[in-house]
Amino acid sequence: MCLTLRSFTALGNEMRTFETGLVQGWLASCDAIALRELRKPLLSERRKRSARVRIDLARHQMDGQPPEDGTTEKERERDRGRERERGAHRVKDALPADFEAPDVTSLILGSDLEVAVNLSADHMDRVNGLISEASMLSRLEFTITDTLSNVALQKIKFRHYADEINRLVGAMKAAVAGLAPAEKALVMPAVRQCAIMLRPGFGPLNWNSLSVPSYISDCGAAVGRLQQVTSQIVASARLLQKAARAIEAVKIVPSSTADLTGVSGGVPTIDELMTVLGVQRAAAVETALKQYASMVTSLKKIEETITGDASGKCALMSEYYAYWDRRVFKALTTMVLGGFSRLKKLLLGPTDRSEPLFRVSASLSVPDILQTPSLHHVQKVLAELQDDLVRCTIPFLRWEDGTCLQMEPQPISLSHSLANGDRRGDGNPEGSVVVKSSQVYLIGDSAGSIGVTDPDLAVFTYYSDMLGDSQVEGAKNGVTRIVSVGTTNIQRFFREWHQHERIWKVDRQGTLARFVAKSPSLSLYHETMAHYKHLYTKFSEAADGTTPDGTIPVVKEVDFVRINCKPLVSGIANQCELWVHSLGYVLTSSHRKTVLQLANTVDRYAMRLVQEPRDLAALKDILAAQADLRENGDFEQ
Predict the structure, then answer these.
(1) What is the model's pLDDT at position 114?
(2) Tens-place pLDDT, residues 294-317
(3) Highest mean pLDDT among 114-123, 237-246, 611-620
(4) Residue 76 has what pLDDT?
(5) Does residue 373 contact residue 270 with C-beta atoms inside 8 Å?
(6) Where is the Dynein heavy chain tail domain (predicted)?
(7) Residue 78: C-alpha distances to residues 16, 40, 42, 68, 81 (Å)
(8) 22 pLDDT band (50/70/90 cuts)?
């Protein structure tokens, strides 16, 4: 028993000796470790391998072959450059206080695409481990060095520094995270200021520096400025995008015939329709122009936030102006394409229209059927309507290069010189254009439509770009094909009336003369007159709307047109009536002598038949007259 106790006591003493030696060795090195960690810069880069590198590593692991290296040559070269840069940063007196590290702005903007690099405060993991172990050893009644005790007492301060720096870095990253490439260029001054403020955190500042609180304060001010700029840019960009979408949504053509305000009394004529569409289109373009003007206001607000000036000529924003100029053109293109799309649906129908777009009337003007207005006029007006949809972009004046200010009207001579030396002389017709790349110069009537009445001035709009756009050209051709098919169907409908053309197209007098020359019988006269009288009744009832079977169309809808055939039907009925009257006149004229002779014969026989049979001779005369009447063929005709 005593032997066992002495063995355990000896073992305990040996363990205590080992433990004491281990702790003393640890304490001897922990001071150096703590001081080395506290002398590290406040900021460091935290790398994440790119997806391509991770895939490459995984492939090597699956093949059972260790990769030669986890990074590409480009990444290794970047690492060596940054190591040299960090080595230079450790030399306190080698760099000015406001030195901007070349990679700090890229770290803030996140422009490194190959390897994701994030700014982060060094959390001093090893120092925290030392502090935790020192606390445990202190509870075990081990003596802790003064250096380690001081570090442990400042643990909360170091944690506060790290949290504040990480918060600032996170705020910077969040401020620029949602910016488009064109918008990142606008925040470069604020980003550079943040980079200058952050730069000391990569060295010479470390965790022992007394100026860390002021460093955090200065960085906070720079980050606040960056957040202010980015928030204004984001808010203005949201307004700009909203205005662009509002322009895209503008309806320069109504969606259905029910939206044609100002049309009363049923289906309008084509001229009335064009008037109503013109009024609605002008109102829609005015709405789009207001949105266009609001975009200039938003751009100036961004400029004022960045530079303190709202001139609209900021050189830093030239690319941003160009970006929104292209966005405006895209919005206008969508607006025009939407107009063509809705016009196409209205022409195709019937789901997008409650009734035809316009009406035409057909009338008889012997020997032709007239359409009012003519199909040529209809095609011309619809072609003009398509051109008007593209002309909606004329009021949108282009911005001067590198600004968001509308281009002022220029003298025609200057516009010619701008148009790469266009030499057309002074003989420009009214409404002509001079094209230079993406600009258009409107002269005369077209310029007057947007308030420029001086014939010697030209204005610059989006019109030429719209004319040359392949999508707009394709949409225009599609509508033209629909109109062509519609007019062909209308012509086919009018050709169906040619089955009745003998009623009005033949020479009535000549036909009747040839008819009389054949000495027709009275029954043939009666049959011919009955035919034309039947046609007269049929067409007159159709014109009055009393035809039960509807075989004769008085109102016909062909594609997008309603054709009023009532004047035509009434004209045909009048022609039938003329045939009846002409036949009666010819019959009367050609048989007047025969009729008179028959009348005399009838009178003579009547006198013989009505006498009283007073004697046998009178009775024989009456009977003889009756016999003559039975045998006489003069009355068969």
Answers:
(1) 33
(2) 999 999 999 888 888 888 888 888
(3) 237-246
(4) 60
(5) yes
(6) 7-215
(7) 51, 21, 22, 18, 5
(8) low
Please report where in the chains the tokens 């060596």 appear, as a residue: 80
Computed over its alpha carbons, how large is the radius of gyration of the chain? Answer: 51
Whole-angstrom Cα distance, residue 317 to residue 323? 10
Q: How many CB atoms lie within 10 A of CB 195?
A: 23
42 within 8 A of 212, measured Cβ to Cβ: yes
Q: How far is it, in rounded angstroms, from Cα 440 to Cα 462?
A: 7
| C-alpha to C-alpha distances, 400 to 40, 397, 416, 447, nearest whole angstrom | 52, 9, 17, 18
Tokens of 148: 């380690």
What is the three-state SS of 423-464? CCCCCCCCCCEEEECCEEEECCHHHHCCCCCCCCEEEEECHH
Structure tokens given for 298: 């938003």
Q: What token pair was written down for 437?
A: 């790349």
SS3 250: coil
Q: b vs e for 524-553, b when ≥16 Cβ sit within 10 Å of the residue's Cβ?
A: ebeebbeebeebbebbbebbeeebeeeebb
Side-chain half-sphere exposure of 526, counting CA atoms within 13 A: 4
Confidence at residue 457, expressed as pLDDT on a 0 to 100 scale:
66
- Give the pLDDT confidence score for residue 264 in this predicted structure: 59
**CA–CA distances in Å: residue 381 to residues 258, 271, 529, 560:** 21, 8, 45, 14
pTM assigned to the model: 0.70
Nearest CA to 321 out of 183, 216, 517, 420 is that of 183
* Alpha-carbon torsion (201, 205, 211, 212), positive or negative: positive
CA distance 270 to 282: 18
Q: Which residues, including other chains, have CB under 8 Å from residue 384's CB and lie 6 or more apart?
A: 274
Neighbours of 81 (CB within 10 A): 12
Interatomic CA distance for residues 328 and 296, integer angstroms: 11
> Terminal CA-to-CA distance of the chain, rounded, Å?
169
pLDDT at 281 over 70: yes
321: left (phi over 0), alpha (psi -120 to 50) or beta: alpha
Q: What is d(CA 464, CA 287) in angstroms, rounded to the nearest whole number? A: 22
Most confident of 128-132, 143-147, 362-366: 362-366
What percent of the residues of the chain are helix, what percent strand, and what percent coil, each to the nearest 5? Answer: 65, 10, 25
Give DSSP secondary structure letters for 344-398.
HHHHH-STT-SS-SEEEEEEEETTEEEEES-HHHHHHHHHHHHHHHHHTTTTSBP
